[in-house]
UniProtKB/TrEMBL annotation, chain A:
Species of origin: Paraoerskovia marina
Protein name per its UniProtKB record: 3-isopropylmalate dehydratase small subunit
Organism phylogeny: Bacteria, Bacillati, Actinomycetota, Actinomycetes, Micrococcales
Alphabetical list of InterPro entries matching this protein: 3-IsopropMal_deHydase_ssu, Aconitase/3IPM_dehydase_swvl, AconitaseA/IPMdHydase_ssu_swvl, IPMI_Swivel, LeuD
Recorded name of the encoding gene: leuD
GO biological process terms held by the UniProt record: L-leucine biosynthetic process
Known pathway: Amino-acid biosynthesis; L-leucine biosynthesis; L-leucine from 3-methyl-2-oxobutanoate: step 2/4
Catalyzed reactions per annotation: (2R,3S)-3-isopropylmalate = (2S)-2-isopropylmalate
Keywords carried by this UniProt record: Amino-acid biosynthesis, Branched-chain amino acid biosynthesis, Leucine biosynthesis, Lyase
Self-association and partners: Heterodimer of LeuC and LeuD.
Gene3D superfamilies in the record: Aconitase, domain 4
Function: Catalyzes the isomerization between 2-isopropylmalate and 3-isopropylmalate, via the formation of 2-isopropylmaleate.
UniProtKB/TrEMBL annotation, chain B:
InterPro entries, per the entry: 3-IsopropMal_deHydase_lsu, Acnase/IPM_dHydase_lsu_aba_1/3, Acoase/IPM_deHydtase_lsu_aba, Aconitase_4Fe-4S_BS, Aconitase_4Fe-4S_dom, IPM_dehydratase_rel_enz, IPMI_cat
Domain of life, per lineage: Bacteria
Family indicated by similarity: Belongs to the aconitase/IPM isomerase family. LeuC type 1 subfamily.
Keywords: 4Fe-4S, Amino-acid biosynthesis, Branched-chain amino acid biosynthesis, Iron, Iron-sulfur, Leucine biosynthesis, Lyase, Metal-binding
Gene: leuC
Pathway in which this enzyme or protein is active: Amino-acid biosynthesis; L-leucine biosynthesis; L-leucine from 3-methyl-2-oxobutanoate: step 2/4
Source species of the chain: Paraoerskovia marina
Reaction(s) the record says it catalyses: (2R,3S)-3-isopropylmalate = (2S)-2-isopropylmalate
Protein name: 3-isopropylmalate dehydratase large subunit
Entry-linked PROSITE patterns: ACONITASE_1, ACONITASE_2
Keyword 4Fe-4S: yes
Length: 211, 493
């Protein structure tokens, strides 16, 4: 994962609340088995609308998304984060994020910063008054700057540290492998195991046919 | 120290407590896989040269984009076929148990775990699917994870997790006839909002919850995520133990006794304190339906579509205006007048045998409204077999419904079961997001009973709107068990 300290890029005002992950990337795009190439799927249902913010030239190269509250609700699909990243977004700012989305973002190096709603409104106003305005997101200071306006954002210490160091979660956990093994030895023997498989006798399933 | 149920399960799985802001490391007892969120995780393992740590705590099934017709033929959609082939190949390579199309235990992952008896009280259960919260109905700490976390669990059988807050949802009183556990959860979400549960684990408590069957409890826990909570759970009790006993992977003999002794400790201590408490009276509930494009936009069926001009909060007003426009509704229109094109009965929320039984009881001897189509999709192949053994399939077919094979189906339209643009559904599933059931599709979330009444009348309806006659006793339609799916009874196929 790339280290993240500061990022400067065009801010995109997304004046919508409750942007769920079905809006970020509809389910039909989830059939791919790769991790990249999802940029076309981002906000697919809205991209056909000329007035949609990303279809306006001033915002189309945006990399800092400023969204309404409850961004990323719904499905756990990490594809939502991949689609944002593949499009070129490095940062999403909102006053509230869905938990799973925020967790997924941190793991993929997309910064999900929590900004007070009044500051979101302020940023929207700046970005809409002067389309193409660049925002500078400073993870060290936890600030977002638009020209001389500076607002603060929150991100938990651990995620911030991991983003700044560019650390991989699995590698970090495997440093404690001995503790995992010790814990495993204490698990009750009756806890269920999927193998060897136990099930009822096999039964023929009849295929339904089109009416 | 006094603790809540969720805190007890958490503490029992602590591999290491985090310090300096680092999250706790929790052991995972059961990892469920399906074809959509696992391929990139397996790919990640392969790229990093890592193995699957515990194949014996992992199980896979095919559900999200499996067809519900012609399951014995090659899957027509090439990308769906690729995804399913990829899962099968990965399962073979990493030694994962898989239940594929055509297998009696194939079906929606959140039905497969419980029906095999793998989902048990006090476990930590994860899956790359947000409706993993379903398993919380057994008193397990169960939540959806992203693909990076799927890979993390594969490699380490643990997850780093930041602590959560606890919220008690107290549902008192008794459900009136015609109202179900689906109406309880839709009412809860409408009350606390789609973000109300963020950062919390919900514990559903109270008289109304205790009376519910396991399947009705699963419906409630299933939709915890629609209130923003990652997990929701219910303390195990006799209903839970009775459901589990005799299932293929339930403990046996002395193991059962040991497990039972432990399971009985899994309850919130009387003097434990929740971070937040919410109260709801079940006796005031009537069937709930959603009018908008998020699950929090729900109202009692007797209400009207909201009038945005009357909403004070600007963000909410704009969202409501947008939702009404997308849904093709008129502000102030009575919900009962909304005409439906498709009724979908199925999903991990309401595709279980009790759901099918209660629907069949309403539909028996009737014909569907001419104007709509009805899809009945059992949650698993086993549920389908059970329904067929009971003759429910014939009731559905005689009614004019399509009886399908198991899977997620029209809940999210990854397979051919989709709404056309502008088409309107009454759906027993869990999400009414824009385009969820097909691009441009319009979804009203409903209970199985509302779905059944709607299928008869053609407009959003409840049992009250039907002339049920004396032969149908609606007092049994309160979410209490008619008869649970019993795995020990051989199917008469």
């Amino acid at each position: 994962m790339e280290k993240f300290t500061t990022h400067t890029g065009v801010g995109v005002p997304l004046r919508r609340t409750n942007v769920d992950t079905d809006q970020i990337i509809p389910a039909v795009y989830l059939k791919r088995v790769t991790r990249t190439g999802f940029e076309d799927a981002l906000f697919a249902a809205w991209r056909g609308d000329e007035s949609f913010v990303l279809n306006q030239p001033a915002y189309s190269s945006g990399s800092v998304l400023v969204a309404g509250p409850d961004f990323g609700t719904g499905s756990s699909r990490e594809h939502a984060v991949w689609a944002l990243k593949d499009y070129g977004f490095k940062v999403v700012l909102a006053s509230r994020f869905a938990d799973i989305f925020r967790g997924n973002s941190g793991k993929q190096g997309l910064l999900a910063g929590i900004v007070a709603q009044e500051d979101v409104e302020l940023l929207w106003k700046i970005l809409e008054t002067n389309p193409g305005t660049e925002l500078t997101v400073n993870l060290v200071e936890r600030t977002v700057a638009a020209d001389d306006v500076v607002v603060r954002f929150e991100v938990d210490d651990y995620t911030r540290w991991r983003l700044m160091e560019g650390l991989d979660d699995i590698g970090l956990t495997l440093q404690h492998e001995e503790e995992i093994t010790t814990f495993e030895a204490t698990r009750a023997s009756w806890r269920p195991k999927t193998l060897p498989a136990k099930h009822l006798p096999p039964v023929e399933i009849e295929a339904a046919r089109p009416a | 120290m006094a603790g809540t149920l969720a805190e007890k399960v958490w503490d029992a799985h602590l591999v290491r407590r985090g310090s300096d802001g680092a999250p706790d490391l929790l052991y995972i007892d059961l990892h469920l896989l399906h074809e959509v969120t696992s391929p990139q995780a397996f790919e990640g393992l392969r790229l990093a040269g890592r193995g699957l740590r515990r194949p014996d705590l992992t199980i896979a099934t095919e559900d999200h984009n499996t067809p519900t017709l012609d399951i014995d033929l090659p899957i027509a959609d090439l990308t769906s076929r690729t995804q399913i082939d990829t899962l099968r190949n990965n399962a073979r390579e990493f030694g994962v148990r898989i239940h594929s199309l055509g297998d009696a235990d194939q079906g929606i992952v959140h039905q497969v775990g419980p029906q095999l008896g793998l989902t048990q009280p006090g476990l930590t259960v994860v899956c790359g699917d947000s409706h993993t919260s379903t398993h919380g109905a057994f008193g397990a700490l169960a939540f959806g994870i992203g693909t990076s976390e799927v890979e993390h669990v594969m490699a380490t059988q643990t997850l780093p997790l930041a602590p959560f807050k606890t919220m008690a949802i107290n549902v008192d009183g008794a459900l009136p006839p015609g109202a179900t556990s689906k109406d309880i959860i839709l009412a809860i979400i409408a009350k606390i909002g789609t973000g109300g549960g963020q950062g919390y684990v919900l514990e559903y408590r109270g008289e109304a919850i205790r009376k519910l069957s396991m399947e009705a409890r699963m419906t409630i826990c299933n939709m915890s995520i629609e209130a923003g909570a990652r997990a929701g759970l219910i303390a195990p009790d006799e209903t839970t133990f009775e459901y589990l006993k005799g299932r293929p992977h339930a403990p046996e003999g002395a193991d059962w006794d040991a497990a039972l002794e432990y399971w009985k400790t899994l309850r919130t201590d009387d003097d434990a304190v929740f971070d937040t408490e919410v109260h709801l009276s079940a006796s005031d509930l009537e069937p709930f339906v959603t009018w908008g494009t998020n699950p929090g936009q729900g109202l009692p069926l007797s209400a009207n579509v909201p009038v945005p001009a009357e909403i004070a909060d600007e963000g909410e007003r704009v969202t409501a205006e947008h939702a009404i426009e997308y849904m093709g509704l008129t502000a102030g229109q009575p919900l009962r007048e909304i005409a439906i094109d498709t009724v979908f009965i199925g999903s991990c929320t309401n595709g279980r045998i009790e759901d099918l039984r209660s629907v069949a009881k309403v539909l028996q001897g009737r014909r569907k409204a001419e104007t709509l189509r009805v899809l009945v999709v059992p949650a698993s192949a086993r549920v389908r077999l059970q329904a067929e053994a009971e003759g429910l399939d014939q009731i559905f077919v005689d009614f004019g419904a399509e009886w399908r094979n198991a899977g997620c189906s029209m809940c999210l339209g990854m397979n051919p079961d989709q709404l056309a643009p502008g088409e309107r559904s009454a759906s027993t599933s869990n999400r009414n997001f824009e385009g969820r059931q097909g691009k441009g599709g319009r979804t009203h979330l409903v209970s199985p009973l509302v779905a059944a009444a709607t299928a008869i009348r053609g407009t959003l309806s409840s049992l009250e709107d039907l002339d049920l006659g004396d032969d149908v006793d609606i007092t049994t339609f309160d979410g209490t068990p008619l008869a649970p799916l019993d795995p020990r009874v051989p199917l008469q196929v």
